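Sanity check. The docking grid for glutamic acid depends on where the pocket ends up, so I'm generating a full predicted complex first rather than guessing from homology. Inputs follow.
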Amino acid sequence: MSTTPTTDDAAETEPESTLATARKQLERAATNTDVDPAIVERLKHPTRVQQVSVPLERDDGTVEVFTGYRAQHDDVRGPYKGGLRYHPEVTAAECTGLSMWMTWKCAVMDLPFGGGKGGIAVDPKSLTDDERERLTRRFAEEIRDVVGPTKDVPAPDMGTDAQTMAWFMDAYSMQQGETIPGVVTGKPPVIGGSYGREAAPGRSTAIAAREAVDYYGRDLAETTVAVQGFGSVGANAARLLDDWGTTVVAVSDVNGAIYAPDGLDTHAVPTHEEEPEAVLSHEAPQTLSNDAVLELDVDVLIPAAVGNVITASNADAVAADVVVEGANGPTTFAADEILEGNGVAVIPDILANAGGVTVSYFEWLQDINRRTWSLERVNEELEEQMLSAWSDVRAVVDERDLPWRDAAYVVALSRIAEAKGARGLWP
Ligand code: GLU
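Predicted complex below; grid placement will be based on this.
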């Protein structure tokens, strides 16, 4: 089977699912490495995917049953690690694809974790705070056997936040009979969360953009940036890049984008956390559709909202020189090939937004050691870890003349394969 479908083939298979993209990326990555095919075969399959029913008593007394999942892809390098997502389109397959990306992400960053991902198929906006709390507590109970600080450590993802993690940690701890902060990361600092964790995926996305600009011999002061999504990833990335001297010309949320060719004051635009879905309320010379942001003629485009937004249908219209993936999986496999053909560099999610799980690792260390790190220390260590991963990936880009995603996969797969080789296949 061809691992590099032509654009025509790709167009036929659109829309691509997250799992399809993840599997094709792995197959393609395997052709760039001399990893034992038996190891690649093992990595195509998750260790387990837990599906649970989560009954919820609504505030009006009626009962509804939701479906929850926890996909555990691989743990050869350490406990499964990855977020919990509350979104109507969560499925077992999506969680599996996302858990594969977490395995590669942790390996690229050289963190002692494997990959997991889970969630509940629910629209969190349709729930009250009390309902979200009860749903989270019951979900924690349903997956209690498969999680734990040395087994599988969930974190926030789309539709979940620090409060969700606090409820999860409390429910788990109450049932285990002791306080166990290390069961989840992304908690509020007052119960063992790490300073800087919430801003970390946006910070690492900004660092990746900064390094890419430098790699291509440009100056930050002469760089224009467009950001799709103004939640924790997009807003933090946009504001940091703004602070570092770039001109952020457009930002968007689900309702659309604001565009200012001379640059926006990103600190004045309300983030999703500050005021949900209020980007358009900010005065700007022009408004655009959310899709149009992807086609702006900017130096750096940061898709930081949801997955599968750059597809075979619009990839040709991407006019940016560099795409930095703030979201997980914003570019389908087919779109990636089109971008590559058009000379657009794509800095992959598994490197760009890996600040989230990196600071999750710092949080886990703090929890296990019962120590608290200052924000300065967190940001310094994040910077160091990002630069080290960046330079590992850049070395493969330079030596092998590979695109950034392929190079990141080479780094990740080599580390995982080495670990699998050393441990062997049991029994
Ligand atoms: N959900 C985040 C991600 O996709 C963070 C995962 C974590 O911190 O474990 O990378």
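Relevant for the grid: The chain has two domains: 1-45+199-353+403-427, 46-181.
Also worth noting: The first helix runs from residue 7 to 13.
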